[in-house]
Model the fold of this input.
Amino acid sequence: MAGESAQERPIRIDVRADDALGDDDVMELLHRLKRREVSAEELRDAARARIDCANPHLNAVVRELDLPVSGDGPFAGVPTVLKDNEDLEGFPTLHGSWAPADRPASATSPWVRQFLGLGFRPLAKTTLPEFGLTASTESSRYGATRNPWNTAHSPGGSSGGSASLVASGAIPIAHANDGGGSIRIPAAVCGVVGMKPSRGRLIDLPELDRMPVNLVTQGVLTRSVRDTAYYLAEAERAYRNPALPPIGMVVRPEQRRLRVGVVTDSVAGLPVDPETREAVLQVGAVLESLGHEVSPVELPVAEGFGKDFLRYWALLAFAFQKAGSRLLGPGFDATRTELLTKGLSAMFVQQMVRVPLSVRRLVKASREPSYAHQDIVVSPVVGHPAPLLGQLGPDVAFREQMVRLLRFSSFTPLENVTGAPAISLPLARSRAGLPIGIQLSAPLGEERRLLSVSYELERAMPWPRTPAAA
Done:
């Protein structure tokens, strides 16, 4: 973990070096591997050295992994990391919490098996808040993970450890997953690319589909649109969901001009930072200059959507509290969970009579299209740039944490309920120099459309790949 000096003296962290990784994204590294200009071992060693350099400042690593380099798969040789809420046989999965037993997983999860099958060999497991229940990667077990753009600030959550390492230049691609914004939020505040795919697009635990509303999808964080596009294309080759239109390999913008809706107001009138609002409007103006038909729209949610989602979130926390041993393995100790988990669980008990109706409304929303008259929608990812560490930390009283969390992260849950894809692009920065991510969302199954527009915006509004390049 980082020492006190890193907390007292906020700095930017950029660990790029004149080594085998250089300043390349995944696609360029794969080209260099194919040309034998660099070896998989050299890339792994360079990434290990960068992680060792970055982690004392960022506190993003739970444990190092020592897996043999793979010679098979489209991503063989590319260094990466794995978020510590997915099982890898032989290593504990601790979910950012003191509650699970510290014992090795007996099997590898379906998604990680596919990830390994694509040639990835993670170098480490990364941090997350307890059970991924909040939007800042701070926990009583591992402390605070820091944002490489300014180490006094949060890297978001729950995939904050992975985002922090990608943004710092330690690795070019990292595992992330998203049940309420956990790919897009850290992507937004760390200045990287993060797509939440459509529900069912990627292989995952079959138990998730037995939930009333399956909120969770797997994915990756990268520094370029083409890296995300290539990952999705290869993942689709490994697992194809026939219920969704194929993505294929998207390599450039398409010619079709789209109907673009622009959202600037949050759920239930929650405040939105003026710089964030202005950044969204700027992206809308750029898209209009590129020939798209742009118009303002409102979030298509019922008045009680926020409360319904929060009650469902509380139901999940209650499940961890009451069925942790069944869900996460024997030895789970619910007394060691944090204030937020206990507070959400207590809220579920207090509002239990309202939960069935909330779930019924969310199920109905999950079966309806989000936007009937737009091809894509542009919105904030979060209500304001990265918060200071501690504002969403594990010691914050439950009610205050809820107020702060809702203001920060109310834009992302809609796509988790509807199952629609959404991507965060690092298209703007605040006056203080922090990244402002912009969300593009599209109807279910339309990842190809999002990637096409993302290429256009990457070309029109290029972003720095690491903090020091800003």
Notes: Residues 1-6 have pLDDT under 50 and may be disordered.
